[in-house]
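Recall that a protein's primary structure is simply its ordered list of amino acids. Everything else, from secondary elements to tertiary packing, is in principle encoded there. The following example makes that idea concrete.
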Amino acid sequence: MKKILVVLIILVAAMTGGIVYYLNGIGAVDSHDMVDVTVEIPNGSGASSIVAILDDNGLIKNRTCAKINARIGGYNSLQANNYIFNKAMTVPEMMKAINTGDFNYISKTSFQLSEGYRLTQCAQALSEVSPFSAKEIMNKWDDKSYVSELIAKYWFLTDDVLKDDVMHPLEGYLFPDTYFITDSDPSLESLTEMALDRMDEALSERRSEIESSDFSVHEFLTLASIVTKEGCATEKDATHISGVFVNRLKKDMSLGSDVTVCYIFDEDRVDLKVSQLDSDSPYNARKVQGLIPGPICTVPTIAMDGLLNYDKTDDLFFYAGPDGTIYYAKTNEEHDKNVAAHPWSEEDLEQ
């Protein structure tokens, strides 16, 4: 009995020691070291190869113990990506993050397409966080063969974007939002489709309303983009400005919008030159009757909803004062009074 007891004690001690050794081996390399370590997990990586990658990056305390954990941990859906870990993390924590593709640990580079951005500004924003220059991006986005491929994929893209008068086919079709790049070597196509996918979501939510309106999707985005640039800081402004434009269209008037002239010259300014205002471009809504060929900027949902729920008003004019207040008028005479009562100073124009 004494011998059996001794053997049992030795076995228990060995098992306890083994468990302690294992738990220590899969623990943190340094519980106080929170410095980020970026780890690339390639496609097709198995649990053992992932352990080797983590070990090579100094994140494994004991490779043997980590391999045991990889085998018994039930990690059956390991996801390739770039992850950011640190030496204070345990092996199970890192393996679980890789197994679930935990977004909190995925390496992210972001770019923002702001509301009212022209396509050239979108290209510049993307170029700052990607391996592509703004020129390369614009060349791709203006490639009609490429755009035709996108038309076949997205219901809201139609041949309207390929018409000769359209300056940039994808203008107004990239949704304004913040986008995270998690791929270490993203293609320009994949980055483009991130923004188109978001536009798909926004338009699909409003698809029945758009189809019930008097506008095609292209016409809808065209007018909504002008509303965006004219001022849709509030829902009230978006619906009222939309109502003014709809009224002018119904009366076969020009939209009279200076922001379309700014688009022609790829700039934002209030003090447009006479030569610019006299431009014969089909985008000059001061001279063109009806809608211009296409959108002039990214379109936020507030502008979309403003147009879908436009105010039933008698107003035909509006004027944005230097303080941002928008003044509406039913007649040209009233409009002129609003302009005279709230003039822009030289200081306002410089700002």
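The chain has a mean pLDDT of 92. The chain has 16 helices and six strands.
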